[in-house]
Amino acid sequence: MPTPNKAASVAELTDQFRSSNAAVLTEYRGLTVAQLKTLRRSLGENAQYAVVKNTLTKIAANEAGITALDEHFAGPTAVAFVTGDPVESAKALRDFAKENPNLIIKAGVLDGKALSADDIKKLADLESREVLLSKLAGAFKGKQSQAAQLFQALPSKLVRTVDALRAKQAEQGGAE
Questions:
Q1: InterPro entries given for it (predicted)?
Q2: Dihedral angle sign, alpha carbons of residues 81, 125, 119, 132
Q3: Contact 59, 123 (CB under 8 A)
């Protein structure tokens, strides 16, 4: 029979799984408390990094409808619950893992879809949302200016063609 504390922990973790855009499971064996504190700071305000109990977290994930992570709840596990830009958090985790090889990215979930450790590394290689949006806006602006030039070119080309026809007609009419 579950204790009230465990039931409350499961409920809290379930809410965190449901309210986050992404969740990344990591193994933190060998990291010091100071290193974990640095990791939490590097994740920023858009993510919450929590050391969790595997059994309770697995129950909470299942209650939130996430079953793809079940096999990864082994060993010392911590979860990064991401509420902001998942790319930013993935980059922070990747960069921290490069500096601290004891942090191992196990797996994750993004908008309900399971991610492997390699998928999370690929996500970290993406540019931030703002950069991608500005590139998209630039591409749209470029296409609009090309369309405007095309629309301006048609009437001017028509005018040049009509002038050439008039000049040719004047030459033919004046030559006879």
A1: Ribosomal_uL10, Ribosomal_uL10-like_sf, Ribosomal_uL10_bac, Ribosomal_uL10_bac_type, Ribosomal_uL10_CS_bac
A2: positive
A3: no
Residues forming a β-bridge with 49: 80
Q: In percent, how much of the chain has pLDDT > 70?
A: 91
Q: How many other CB atoms are there within 10 angstroms of residue 153's CB atom? A: 10
User: Are the beta carbons of 102 and 58 closer than 8 angstroms?
Assistant: no
The rounded radius of gyration (Å) of the Cα atoms in the chain is: 29
- What's the pLDDT band for 124 if we cut at 50, 70, 90? confident
Residue showing tokens 């990747």: 94
DSSP state of 46: G
pTM of structure:
0.68
| Residues in Cβ contact with 131 at an 8 Å cutoff, skipping those fewer than 6 apart | none
And the tokens for 141?
């602006």
**What is the Cα–Cα distance from 163 to 64, expressed in whole angstroms?**
73
31 versus 128: the higher-pLDDT residue is: 31
Tell me how far apart the alpha carbons of residues 39 and 134 are, in angstroms, rounded to a whole number: 29
